[in-house]
Amino acid sequence: MHAFSFHNPCQIEFGAGQIAKLAQLIPAQARVLLLYGGGSIKHNGAYDQICSALKQHHWREFSGIEPNPEFETLMQAVQFARNEQLDYIVAVGGGSVIDGAKFVAAAVPHNGDCWLIIGNRTPLSTALPLAAVLTLPATGSESNFAAVISRRETNDKLSFKNPLVFPKLAILDPTLTYSLPARQVGNGIVDAFVHTTEQYLTYPNEARVQDRLAEGILQTLIEIGPITLAEPNNYDARANLMWAANQALYGMVGLGQPQDWASHAMGHELTILFGLDHARTLAIVLPALWRYRLQSKQAKLAQYGRRVWGLNGSDAQVANAAIDKTADFFQQMGLPTQLSAYSIDADEAANGVAAQLIRHQRLKLGEKQDLTPDDCRAILITAA
């Protein structure tokens, strides 16, 4: 196990009706920016509950944060917050809204070029405090310090990390997910699944507790995935999905572990080039990546196959069968694993992603930093 440092300052309030706690947990003198996406929060009950909780606070709202939040929209929110002298953010939504809120929190007090915040290219000295009300479980953004922001003007989708944008508070109410479309539920399950495997499925590293945490999350997602799709109002299933997605990127799974993230690097480029949902790019890339890297990942794939899927046989047999099981599960959740399902030409996708990785200087990917843009091109061609 590698050395590590861990700290997570986010207070989590889990369960039905927890939005009401915003009234006491947000400072009375705070001038609040309520940040959200479309109208779904006005249909699932979150908006009315937040209005009630903040009735003694000064607050203003800004809506329209896109899936894959865009820099241009977020800068409008930044200017709005500055003009209104708002100093506390409440983000309501899924990972996109919360990621966007992290950028806004960092950008409002920033004096320089705010685009340089992305990619950690400029130091931050402060950020606005942030609370997250989660309505779409998938990314774990509600209690970590990472965000991914897109810029349509330059065809970029890039991340940044900074402890200053850790949410102070996260409200996780599973009942807010009841009205989600099946597509978004399936996306969230696969997103959480791949977040877990990016930190777990590399090579054996004697991080036994972290391995068991990862395997428990994966088994939970496999168990409750079909239930969350078939029974939208099943509280226990939705609660376990929400907590599994949170824990996938809370920070514990990857402690002391070699981590991959090549699927995400390729997936981000597929999203910006072809407009695919983030989770759907991961469902395409991950099985293809595992097959391409079968030799170097075989030991961990075999462990995964035996512990998570209950498979038997030689390491090679179990590893191959585990990849097939994973692809089947993604498809069961409604996410195809081939580019052709979206009428995307594999050569065009492969060449486009390789070119984007080169442009973004992502020249060495994977847990051993030995996966090149040419390798990524070859992986995507196999995902035809």
TrEMBL record:
Fe-containing alcohol dehydrogenase-like C-terminal domain location: 189-382
Protein keywords: Oxidoreductase
Gene3D superfamilies found in the cross-reference section: 3.40.50.1970, Dehydroquinate synthase-like - alpha domain
Highest taxon of source: Bacteria
Cofactor(s) this protein requires: Fe cation
GO molecular function term, any single one: methylglyoxal reductase (NADPH) (acetol producing) activity
Domain Alcohol dehydrogenase iron-type/glycerol dehydrogenase GldA: 10-174
InterPro entries the record matches: ADH_Fe/GldA, ADH_Fe_C, BDH-like
Keyword Oxidoreductase applies: yes
Protein source organism: Chitinibacter fontanus
Name by which UniProt lists this protein: Iron-containing alcohol dehydrogenase
Gene Ontology cellular-component terms listed: cytosol
Family as reported in the entry's similarity comment: Belongs to the iron-containing alcohol dehydrogenase family.
